[in-house]
Amino acid sequence: MFSAFDIERKNVYSARGGHTFAVAGTVESKGVELAGAVRPIDGWKLWGNIAYVHARYINFIDPGPAGLNFSGNTPPNVPTWVANAGTSYRFATYWPVEVGATVRYVGNRFLTDNNEVTMLAYTIADAFAFVDVPRADNPIKGVDSTRIGFRVRNLLDRAAQADLPLERLPVKDRAGCRTVGQLLPLLTGLVGVENESSLVEGFEEHDPH
User: Which of 86, 89, 186, 204 registers the highest number of CB atoms within 10 A of its CB?
Assistant: First the structure.
């Protein structure tokens, strides 16, 4: 399946922390997505998708004292590339058992509206298994079937950004790789918030996850 989109949102709010927001004007997002799934043989499934997004502020001048112009910049926490893939196999046993694995890639994203600091891309792999209990063996009367599932997240034990506190996120700026915690004093001045805690709150409010 292939899809393309061209979305324009007006009067978008940009979080500034402390439950305060700035009006970012218009955000334009253009992109494409390719997705597919196949069954090579009975019981075996393969699926995946990849998406490209080009997102930009069209007219965004920060109302703060510095009056920073973010027009043309990418909104925070919006990756250009995202990809997912997975596979599973279903065993035709008396109680059907299915096992599988998935992998997710999230590309680089900017940390703030000024696009000075980049959060580094990451990849996460998970595994899962489940058993379907047929109605005849189901202890709960009136229920057609029951599924018992198991899941192991982050198989490679990577320090995925989705699971880290904001202060420990790996990022890259002009000085090289470091963590958000080391950059907070600098970022506070760049984006015009009052203090470091406001910057943390603002990013967490903007987080689309």
Answer: 86
Alpha carbon distances (Å) from 88 to 36, 46, 154, 158, 174 = 15, 7, 17, 22, 42
Separation CA 90–CA 14 (nearest Å): 45
Kindly tell me the sign of the dihedral angle through the C-alpha atoms of 47, 102, 208, 50.
negative
pLDDT class for 43, splitting at 50, 70, 90? very high
Q: Which helix (H) or strand (E) holds 182?
A: helix 180-191
Instruction: Tell me: pLDDT of 88 over 90.
Output: yes
pLDDT tens figures, 189-199: 444 444 444 44
Strands 81-91 and 118-119 turn out to be: unpaired
- With tokens 């590339």, the residue in question is 81
Task: Give the separation between CA 171 and CA 178, rounded to whole angstroms.
Answer: 6
**Three-state SS at 136:** helix
Domains defined along the chain, listed by start: 2-206 (2.40.170.20)
